[in-house]
Amino acid sequence: MIIGGSASQALAAEVARELNDKLCSVETKKFPDGERYFRIKDEICEDEQVTIIQSTGYPQDENMMELFFILDTLGDMNIKNITLVSPYLGYSRQERRFKEVECISAKATAKLIQTMGVKHLVSINLHEESICDLYDIPVNNLSAMPAIADYIRINFPEKKPIILAPDKGAENFAKEIATLLNTDYDYLEKVRLSPEKVKTKTKSISVDNRSVIIVDDIISTGGTIVNAINILKLQGAKSVDVVCVHPVLVNDAVLKINAAGANSVQGTNTLKSEVANISVAKTIAEHLKTL
Ligand code: R5P
Predict the structure, then answer these.
(1) From the CA of 232, how far away is ligand 1's center (Å)?
(2) Which of 35, 93, 164, 218 is most exposed, with the fewest beta carbons within 10 Å of its own?
């Protein structure tokens, strides 16, 4: 049985279709004062394996609270075998203390998720692998890169693009995609030319007259990508397209990226977004089959 929370209902339906599983009928709504309501409309047997699919991106607190309502309802129904698929796990960027006595939000949410009865957590490209260590239950951190590579293969068949990470932290994403597509990859590196002068450039490959596809895990304000596009244009890139796993896209991020000269911006459907045209349903379904 698959339950889709309101942040991920379309994705949940797609996963249920892939698995030939039943999608549980639920009622979700928001009262005029902003409080959430949740009800399960189908019968679920106590020994049933239930998978909840709910991302906890914006509005994080509401989606998180709805998740707790779903878990509490399942608890009342005596259902014990619960897997949570949270393709985008909110509060993951504060997974440690950067300043003294800060709340480690990722740890606080981990505590709540476990206390509420989740026995197994599945997510996609967690901000840091170390988030898994905040949990006492098994956590699987899946990669959306095969889905992104398929998207590139289908939509850019005539090109042999360079897959480019905007920084060293995203290099592994570029490498994974490039390996699947049998093409080149690189990342942008800051080089200090003098105590006052820093230049950002590709680490080892020239982008001059090449098609480039930038890949990152998250696009939030778009600042990282805009900076990368500006550098690639200066270095003579023929075209620049952009893909990401989690299209957080605050404010006018897509507009800014397009204005900087990107041909296209795409993301996966870990979050609802105008650019979420790459589906991770197969990635999730294939993994759930192995549990
Ligand atoms: C950083 O660790 C991430 O991989 C992204 O590069 C970052 O979150 C993007 O943020 P923004 O779009 O605000 O530059």
Answers:
(1) 18
(2) 35
Residues 88-146 have pLDDT tens digits of 999 998 989 999 999 999 999 999 999 999 999 999 999 999 999 999 999 999 999 99
**Ligand 1: which atom is nearest the Cα of residue 217?**
4
Give the residue whose CA is nearest to atom 7 of ligand 1. Answer: 218
Q: Rounded to the nearest 5°, which phi and psi values hold at 15?
A: -65, -45
Pick 145-269's CATH classification: 3.40.50.2020, 3.40.449.10, 3.40.50.2300, 2.130.10.10: 3.40.50.2020
The sheet with strand 265-268 has its strands ordered as 198-202, 185-192, 162-165, 211-219, 239-247, 265-268, 276-278
List the catalytic residues. Answer: 190
Which atom of ligand 1 is least distant from the CA of 222?
12
